[in-house]
Amino acid sequence: MNYTPLPPQSPSTPRESDEEYTALLDDTSKETASEPLSRTVFRLDRLVRLATLIILLCTVIDLLLIVYLGVQQHSVRNKVPGAEDDDLEIRSPYVNLAELYAQTPLKSSKHDPIVNHARAFVQISATEPHKVFPPYGLMRPIADGMVPEYQRHLLVTPTMSTVAQFRVADFGMENCSMSITVPPREESHDHIQDEPATVEIWSYPLKKKLNMQKLSYATRPTGGTLLGSLPVAFGETYRLPGYHCLSGTYQTFEFKCSTPGCKIDVMGNGDKASGLYMYQYQTV
């Protein structure tokens, strides 16, 4: 039997085939890996665009809210003092109680006088008629900002007076008396020139709430009448005779110097009977 010899093969032929196959696999794997990578990049790009759009939208909304609040605050500040409540009627929460006490022989319980403090004292100056003095003095910081300390600054000089407004509290306590209490000289930082000094109390017919943030000498209430004059001295308490004051109404006063060169600088603190305040006595 005769065999036909095969032609000799080069020893490098299998190696070259393997290298070509390996190279082909590498190219295929690169193409396969690049496909999910491109999809991921595309998704990230969409996410970034969406997040940018949301941020821009929120920024525009915030700017619109800031503008709106600024306009609202500006309109509130431009309100005329005394017109804060417009012409709305102040309704009494004690409906028909007066008729009930008038028609029925009820025996009332006895109550001590009420110490009634003004919301704020505001200084006005005749030499600076358009200047608005801040209604509060010392400010105390809290978590949300600043709040006024509960102090009431009575300051009267030949050119400066003080305006205050009280709201009468409680039905059946409608006999009001303006009062002033000053601690002894060694216990206070108050100043009274030519002791005992005298302060004039002028009452105004205004029955609406004053805008203390806009009050000045030029915008003060008009049509006042002299309620009385109150002595001021260290270690003393003085009161004017009582007058009828309807529950729930506003009582507006201006305190002025009664003599040339006078100066009264008295501070009321806390909710106790100190400085200038109003006493309310029981009437039923």
TrEMBL record:
Natural source organism: Favolaschia claudopus
Lineage summary: Eukaryota, Fungi, Dikarya, Basidiomycota, Agaricomycotina
Transmembrane portions of the chain: 47-71
Region (Disordered): 1-21
Superkingdom per UniProt: Eukaryota
Protein's UniProt name: Ubiquitin 3 binding protein But2 C-terminal domain-containing protein
Pro residues bias spans: 1-11
Membrane found in the keyword field: yes
Keyword entries, A-Z: Membrane, Transmembrane, Transmembrane helix
